[in-house]
Structure formats: C-alpha cells, structure tokens
Write a structure and sequence with these properties.
60% helix; single chain; 10 strands; alpha+beta
Length: 320
C-alpha cells in the first residue's frame, strides 16, 4: 500500500540467462539483416529492462515500437550521411575548398545535433515509458537547451575544460527537472562547484592510490547523482532519492563483473549487466510519504524516435 508508506523501494528482477537469450537473438537477427533489425533489437532490449524493473512491486513498461524506431533510425542515418558525406567527398575529390567546407559542416552540424539529440531522446523515451498505466513526459524547451549548451560549451572551451563540471550539472539540472510522471514532477539540484571539487579530489586520490580510490570516487559520483534528485507531487509532498552505495560495494561489483566477462570470454556479459542493475536499484531508496495513487495521467505520447536513434549512433546517452 502506498499511502503513508515512509519508504519506497526499487528492484531489478531480471535473470542473466534471460538477458543472454535476448541479446543473442538480437545480435543474430541484426547480423542476418545487415543491421536493419537494430531498431527492433533496441526496442526489445529496452522493454526487457523496463519490465524487470519494479517500484514497490509494480513493473515499468516501455511502449516504443520497432517500426517507429526504424523510421527514426533511417532519418538519423540520412542526417549523419549528409554531414559526413560532404567532408568525405572533399577528401576523396582532393578539393581543398570542399574539404574545408565539409569539415566545417561536420563540426558545426555535430555540435548543433547534441542539444537536438538530448531533447528528442528525453521527449521520446520518457513519453514511451509508463508505470502503473501512467506515462512519463518531458517538458523542456529546445531553444532553452540550445542557449544553455552554446553558453556552457563556449565557457568550457575558454576555461580549457574546467567549466565542464558546471556544464554537466546545469544540463542535468535542466533535463531532469523537466521530467514529469503524470501530474507529478522531478527536480534535480546539483551544484557545479561541489561537482568540480568532488571530481578533483577523486582524480588526485585515485592517482595517488594507484587506482584504488577509483571505486570510492565512483561511489561519490553515484551518491551525488542520486541524492540530489527528488520527486514532487501536487499536494506539496515529495519523495527524496537516497543512495546507500559504498566504495566497497562498487569494488565488489566491478571486480567480479570484469572477472565474469574475462573468464567467460564475453559470454557472461549478460550476467554482469544484471548484477549491475541489481546493485544500482538495490542502493536507491525513495524516502517520503507521498501518495502515488493521487498521480493522474497528463502526458502525451511522442512517436518520433529519430533523436533517440541518432543519440545511439553518436554515442550520446540519456540519464535513464
């Protein structure tokens, strides 16, 4: 029962053997179809992860379809071919002018795509996700995201990367604070200076301890990402995300995962993935007395998966 429950738990119920079969079938079908099955493979894998992820015993669901993701995949491929094609043509033709123009088009195009990919991925992925029949949604504005990325990107270049910590946190604050679950909303409150100092400490201590502190650095990052997130409701109540992860826990997780993958020649990857998912969700608790039954549906579904597929092709991930 949700009402007046002080603590809410996330859990992952998937099994390594089941994930192995999903990944194996996806790989074979993608290979046989020369990559065309990729969107269906992605949809199937996401559905498997969602359906085995639970909050208080209720699973999440991913409603994305291979057909709509295939359309987005084709659009993403066409855009990338257009960007890279101009530069490649200039190099092949040995035309300096076309090569320079193509290089500028490629660099500017990729930079302009990053906010588009982030915005579109959040919009699509969230709207196609649900829990207990209520959909998630994303209310961020593309023009606001562009302004922030251009400003913070320029400051990061000018400061030789130092401002990147603020850029990362500003991006996380904006995107996660614009996530919705029906009539409820999420809020992320990170601070660039705290994040910078935490990474600075982690870098030097990891260096001085010959890598040993890296597991505790990973713990600090995980705790920072989780502890600054809250889930807010219309009646003023909220659920606060809280991490219980430890450095020793990360040490055991990562070392054992590496050994599993190495000694099984990669076959154990699925089991390592399941161990990671269980560790992550077992170490996230939601504390508060919010009534989840009071949340009502307010979000619309968006079926354009182009940005989500483009993000995969450009190796730009989202936070969920």
């Amino acid at each position: 029962m949700f009402v007046n429950s002080p603590m809410k738990r996330l859990a992952f119920k998937g099994q390594g053997g089941d994930l192995f079969i999903v990944l194996l079938v996806n790989m074979l079908l993608t290979f046989i179809t020369l990559g065309l099955y990729y969107p269906w493979a992605k949809a199937r894998k996401l559905s498997w992860y969602y359906e085995h992820t639970e909050l208080d015993g209720h699973p999440f669901h991913f409603h994305g379809k291979g057909e709509e993701m295939f359309k987005g995949f084709i659009k993403a491929i066409a855009l990338l071919l257009l960007i890279y094609g101009t530069y490649a043509y200039g190099v092949y033709a040995k035309d300096v002018t076309i090569t320079v123009i193509g290089l500028l088009v490629m660099v500017v195009g990729l930079l302009l795509f990053i906010p588009l990919v982030i915005h579109g991925s959040f919009r699509y992925r969230s709207s196609r996700s649900s829990w207990r029949g209520v959909h998630f949604g994303y209310h961020g504005k593309l023009n606001e995201l562009y302004s922030m990325c251009l400003r913070d990107g320029l400051l990061t270049v000018i400061t030789f990367g130092i401002y990147g910590a603020w850029f990362t946190i500003n991006l996380r604050n904006y995107t996660l604070s614009n996530l919705r679950y029906g009539s409820s909303s999420f809020q992320y409150k990170g601070d660039g200076m705290d994040y910078f100092l935490m990474n600075l400490k982690g870098y030097f201590l990891t260096l001085f301890t010959l890598g040993i502190y890296g597991f505790w650095w990973q713990r600090d990052l995980f705790n920072y990402y989780v502890d600054n997130l809250s889930w807010n409701f219309q009646d003023g109540r909220k659920l606060q995300f809280k991490s219980t992860a430890t450095g020793g826990g990360f040490f055991g997780l990562l070392v054992v995962n590496v050994l599993i993958v190495i000694f099984t020649l990669g076959i154990g990857f699925a089991w390592a993935e399941v161990r990671t998912m269980r560790f992550v969700l077992d170490n996230i608790t939601l504390i508060g007395d919010a009534d989840l039954n009071a949340v009502v549906q307010t979000e619309q579904e968006h079926k354009d998966a182009m940005a989500d597929d483009l993000g995969d092709l450009m190796d730009i991930g989202v936070f969920f």
